[in-house]
């Protein structure tokens, strides 16, 4: 089980579209749409949001992303009326709904707890990554430099695969100097096919982490 996500939008189509996009990056993560008013028109629904919070919570918690201010107010009202135990597992993210949902979904699929998933969503609003990029991994740690060989480079799906893999090791991993556990930081590199990638790590499993990520890159992220 993992942390779930709830997408609250004034539009049914926007909520469902964000769920579809984020779900492509994070199989197995429960992502629930609460879009539109009760009649399906533009607006938000307290009942849909409340039901969505319950549906998204497997016991690990829920991160809620909203599109506009009144959606946040609806989510806050629903949160206030949950029982104490359920409410303690819900976080409302101050983050762009699309980018934040993608980053949060990848973090949830990597096994982060609810506060880690919240932090990942906040990187979409300029918040710090789960590991501060400014603290560069020492040069004397294990390092590999490779060339991206897959057609799509280090974009959405490959980036998600890299982030999820890096999160499985007890190590602090960086790719070209950014936190390898931050989906948006990795995507922000904008690396295409043929670009150079330097993987560096520190920590108890640094060697294993660098070797595994390097293998993923060399395999072209298993793209056909």
From TrEMBL:
User: Which Pfam families does the protein's record reference?
Assistant: EIIA-man, PTS-HPr
Q: Which UniProt keywords apply?
A: Kinase, Transferase
GO molecular function (one): kinase activity
Cite the EC number.
2.7.1.121
Instruction: Decide whether keyword Chaperone is in the record.
Output: no
Q: Which residues form the HPr domain?
A: 141-224
Reactions it catalyzes: dihydroxyacetone + phosphoenolpyruvate = dihydroxyacetone phosphate + pyruvate
Superkingdom classification of source = Bacteria
Keyword Transport appears in the UniProt entry: no
User: Which ranges carry the PTS EIIA type-4 domain?
Assistant: 2-131
InterPro entries reported for this sequence: DhaM, DhaM_N, HPr-like, HPr-like_sf, PTS_EIIA_man-typ, PTS_EIIA_man-typ_sf, PTS_HPr_His_P_site
Q: Which PANTHER family does the UniProt entry name for this protein? A: PEP-DEPENDENT DIHYDROXYACETONE KINASE, PHOSPHORYL DONOR SUBUNIT DHAM
Quaternary structure (record): Homodimer. The dihydroxyacetone kinase complex is composed of a homodimer of DhaM, a homodimer of DhaK and the subunit DhaL.
Q: What does this protein do?
A: General (non sugar-specific) component of the phosphoenolpyruvate-dependent sugar phosphotransferase system (sugar PTS). This major carbohydrate active-transport system catalyzes the phosphorylation of incoming sugar substrates concomitantly with their translocation across the cell membrane. The phosphoryl group from phosphoenolpyruvate (PEP) is transferred to the phosphoryl carrier protein HPr by enzyme I. Phospho-HPr then transfers it to the PTS EIIA domain. Component of the dihydroxyacetone kinase complex, which is responsible for the phosphoenolpyruvate (PEP)-dependent phosphorylation of dihydroxyacetone. DhaM serves as the phosphoryl donor. Is phosphorylated by phosphoenolpyruvate in an EI- and HPr-dependent reaction, and a phosphorelay system on histidine residues finally leads to phosphoryl transfer to DhaL and dihydroxyacetone.
NCBIfam families in UniProt: dha_pts, PTS_HPr_family
Name of the protein in its database record: Phosphocarrier protein HPr
Q: Which organism is it from?
A: Agrococcus versicolor
């Amino acid at each position: 089980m993992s942390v779930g996500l709830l997408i609250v939008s004034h539009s049914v189509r926007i909520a469902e579209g964000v769920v579809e996009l984020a779900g492509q990056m994070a199989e197995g993560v429960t992502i629930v749409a609460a879009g539109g008013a009760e009649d399906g028109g533009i607006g938000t629904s307290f009942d849909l949001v409340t039901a969505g919070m319950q549906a998204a919570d497997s016991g690990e918690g829920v991160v809620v992303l909203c599109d506009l201010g009144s959606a946040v107010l609806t989510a806050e009202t629903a949160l206030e009326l949950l029982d104490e135990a359920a409410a303690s597992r819900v976080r409302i993210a101050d983050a762009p709904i699309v980018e934040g949902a993608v980053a949060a979904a990848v973090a949830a699929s990597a096994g982060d707890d609810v506060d880690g998933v919240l932090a990942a969503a906040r990187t979409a609003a300029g918040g710090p990554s789960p590991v501060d990029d400014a603290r560069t991994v020492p040069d004397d740690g294990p390092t590999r430099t490779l060339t991206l060989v897959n057609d799509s480079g280090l974009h959405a799906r490959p980036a998600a695969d890299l982030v999820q893999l890096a999160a499985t090791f007890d190590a602090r991993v960086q790719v070209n100097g950014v936190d390898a556990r931050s989906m948006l930081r990795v995507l922000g590199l904008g690396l295409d096919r043929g670009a150079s990638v330097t993987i560096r790590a520190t920590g108890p499993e640094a060697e294993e982490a660098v070797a595994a990520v390097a293998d993923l890159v060399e395999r072209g992220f298993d793209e056909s």
